[in-house]
Write a structure and sequence with these properties.
Oligomer: single chain
Shape: elongated
Radius of gyration: 19 Å
Largest sheet: none
Distance between the termini: 33 Å
Structural class: mainly alpha
Number of strands: 0
Helix content: over 70%
Strand content: under 5%
């Protein structure tokens, strides 16, 4: 077999291993998925009418606020789901299975690829489930074309890939699963200080740069533009650039940690 064929075969084996772990121990994925769903329901049904007053042309009601927050909730779903990748990698590291894999005649990169692809698939599935909940409570896209839906799906997948590589790096650097879970918490907290729940213009002046100059805000605004027809402007390019930079940094971090000799 060629080197490429071996890499594909070993990566597929590692992917199957990670998917089996997810199927046998679904509690972590369900717990992480519960956070964005609960926030969606909380902000729509408890705060929806009040929060909608802060939107452009305020007083639009709960239906307008559902449309506003769903893009942010979808990206928060990705941030929440990839924490599972950090925990899974840290568990493998602490239990010694990674050391065992190092001694086997397998493609070295297949271990990380299995974790990354498995996490991206879980993130996409979680986004679909949360999106279904959003549709069930009243979310509707505004004249989005098939191409815009495809672009939105592509952005969500690219964002999931970028955050997964960062989460894998966090897992490699953590001494145990608990530490990995804690180190990955910013992936859930960052959407809370973005434009996910309220417009940046409504925030205090000193806080606006914090919300604006981070990866979630341009991705959220791009999704809003694709699905709801709002102005995208330069946010599309910024979102893609953030994804590529984060993916490159996470990949370099993860592979460097994996290639380092164990102490």
């Amino acid at each position: 077999m060629s080197a490429m064929s071996l890499a594909v075969r070993d990566s597929a084996t590692m992917l199957r291993r990670n998917l089996l772990h997810t199927r046998r121990y679904p509690s972590l994925t369900l717990n992480l998925l519960l956070t964005p769903v609960m926030l969606l329901l909380l902000f729509v049904y408890i705060f929806g009418n009040t929060m909608s007053a802060g939107l452009a042309g305020g007083g639009s009601g709960r239906s307008a606020y559902i449309a506003y927050i769903v893009p942010g909730i979808l990206l928060m779903t990705i941030g929440s789901t990839v924490i599972g990748a950090a925990v899974s990698v840290a568990t493998d590291m602490s239990e010694g299975i990674i050391a065992r894999f190092r001694t086997m005649a397998i493609h070295r990169g297949s271990v990380l690829i299995g974790h990354v692809v498995g996490s991206v698939l879980q993130s996409v599935a979680s986004v679909v489930l949360v999106g279904a909940v959003a549709v069930a409570i009243g979310f509707r896209s505004t004249d989005a074309t098939a191409l815009e839906w495809l672009a939105a799906f592509g952005l969500l997948t690219l964002f999931a890939l970028a955050l997964t590589w960062i989460a894998v790096g966090m897992g490699m650097a953590s001494p145990n699963a608990e530490a990995a879970s804690n180190s990955a918490m910013p992936l859930i907290l960052l959407p809370l200080i973005s434009s996910a729940f309220t417009p940046i213009d409504a925030m205090p002046g000193w806080f606006q740069p914090i919300a604006e100059y981070q990866p979630f805000t341009p991705a959220i605004e791009t999704l809003r533009g694709l699905l709801l027809g709002t102005e995208i402007g330069h946010n599309g390019w910024l979102a893609v650039a953030w994804c590529l930079v984060l993916a490159a940094l996470g990949y370099r971090w993860s592979t460097a940690s994996f290639g380092r000799d164990p102490k």
